[in-house]
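Notebook p. 47: complex prediction with FE2/S2 (inorganic) cluster.
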Amino acid sequence: MKGKGNVIRFLLNEKLVEIDFSLLPELKPTTTVLNYLRSLPFHKGVKEGCAEGDCGACTVVVAEIADGRLRYKSIDSCLVFLPMLHGKQLITVEHLASGEILHPVQQAMVDRNGSQCGYCTPGIVMSLFGLYKNHRDPSKESVMDALTGNLCRCTGYRPVIDAAAIACSGTENDKFAKTEPDVVIRLTELNSDKSPVTIENSSQKYLKPMVLSDALRFRKEFPRAIITAGATDTALRQTKKKELLKEIIDISDVQELKYFREEQDYFQIGAGLSIESLRQYADGKIPALKQMLDIFGSLQIRNLATVGGNIGSASPIGDTIPLLIALKAQVELKSTNVARRCSIEDFIIGYRSVDIFPDELITSIILPKPSPERFIRSYKVSRRKDLDISTVSAGFSLLSVNGIVEDIKLVFGGMAAQPVHAFKTEKFLLGKPWIVKTIRDAMEILYNEFTPLSDARANAGYRNLVARNLLLKFFEESKGHPA
Ligand SMILES: Cc1cc2nc3c(=O)[nH]c(=O)nc-3n(C[C@H](O)[C@H](O)[C@H](O)COP(=O)(O)OP(=O)(O)OC[C@H]3O[C@@H](n4cnc5c(N)ncnc54)[C@H](O)[C@@H]3O)c2cc1C
Ligand code: FES
Ligand code: FES
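Predicted complex, C-alpha cells below:
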C-alpha cells in the first residue's frame, strides 16, 4: 500500500519524534496521547481523571499551521489517538518554563495561589497557556470558557481566574513567540508529504488520509472501517466501552473538509470544521447556532469535535441537529464517483443511525440563510449549564405575517430516539394568531405529543414539561421581534 507505512512524525515540544509502530509493539495506533505521554520518562505532568473528556486533567496544547502561523488549541489528550498528532507540535506542561523562569501563566498561578493538591494544576496551566496564546486582555467570558473543561475540587476557581487575567494582560512575550518561525518551518516540512499514513498491526488497521480523494478511496476499499474525525465519540468506544477498534479511517487532517463558506443564499460548512471554528464563524452570522455552540462541551472538546461528527453520530441529543433541521439544512455526501445531497431530517433515520452508503463520507452541510423576518432560537436544557449533555434541546423557527403563523418549525432533541419535529403542534399553530391563547392551547398539545424515555438525566414527565415550557419561552422571546 502506498503511503507512510507505520510511521508518524510530530514535534514533542521542540524535539522531533518519529514513531515507527512496527518497532514499538507496546504502542497501538489507538493509544491515546495521554497514555503515550504517561509512558515516557519526564512527561508525567499530564494526568488521567476521567478518560472521557470531562475533567481536563489531561489537557495539553497542540500547535498546527493555519495561514502560515501557528494556531494553538487546548485539547483533552485522553480522547486523541496518537496518529492524530502527525505533523503537529504537542506542547506539554514540562516545556512551558525556560530553565528556572516560569511561563507567565505558571508564575501567575503561583502568585495568586491557584493550586492546592495540584492534581488538576497541569491541566489548568495548559488551558491558561491556550488562553494566553489566543487572547490578549481576555474578557471574563473568554477566561471562563477556557476553564470550563477543567475541574478542580479543592482550590476554587477565583485564584485561577485572577491568574488568567494577570497572565494574559499586556503584550504576548513568551519563548513560544520567539520560536514560532522555526516551528512553522519544521511543521511545514513535516506536512509537505500528502501521502496517507497507514498503520497496521496484527489486530488493527489505521488509515490516515491527508486528502479527500484518498479518504474516499479508503472508504470504498474498507467499507466496514470506523470513521473518526475529532474522535470525541469514537475514542470513548475504546476508553469507556473497551472496544477494539479494528479498522479506522482518520479524516482529522483532511484540510479540504475544514472550511466555512458564505454564499448569497446559504452557508456551506465543511464536515471536518471543528465546532469551535464554527462557533467563531457563526458569531454575527447565525446567532441561534452561536448561542447553542457557546454551551457545547468545553473548549477542549470543541477544538476537537467536528460538525460532521455531530451529525454523523446522530445522537438524539446532538446539539446542532434540532436547529439544523428547523432551518432545513442539507448534508452533502460524496463517494469516489457520486455526490448527493439530502436533508438532515431524512439523513437521520433512527437512534444513532444515518442513511449513508458504506463508501460515502459527509463532506459538508448546506445551511440556507433564513430570511430576516424569521424568528429563530435554539435551547439546551441540561442538569448544569456548562460541559453537560442536553436533557432536552430544541431548534425553533417562526415566520408570522401580520401576527398570523405562516410557517413554524419546532424540532426537539431528547424527546425521541432521534431529533424530531413536534408535527401535531406545528400543524395546530399554522394559520393561527401568534397570541398567548394560541400558545396555551399549543402547549397542551405539545405536552402530550411525545413519549420520551426516562433515564439518568430526567424522567419522561420532566421532559414533556420542559418541551412544553420551551414553547412559552420562545413565544415570550419573540415579542420583541418585528415580524
Ligand atoms: C466530554 C464531552 C462533551 C460533549 N458535549 C457535547 C455537547 O455539549 N453537545 C453535543 O452535541 N455533543 C457533545 N459531545 C459529543 C461529541 O463531542 C459530538 O457529537 C461531536 O460533534 C462529535 O464529533 P467528532 O468529530 O469528535 O466525531 P467522531 O468521534 O470523530 O465521529 C463520530 C462518528 O461520526 C461519524 N462521522 C464523523 N465524521 C464523519 C464524516 N465526515 N462522514 C461520515 N460520518 C462521519 C462516524 O460514524 C463516526 O464514528 C460531547 C462529547 C464529550 C466526550
Ligand atoms: S482524563 Fe478527564 S478529560 Fe481527559
Ligand atoms: S488543586 Fe486539587 S483538584 Fe485542583
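Notes: The two ends are 60 Å apart (CA to CA). Residues 460-478 form the longest helix (19 residues).
Next step: compare against the earlier run before touching the bench.
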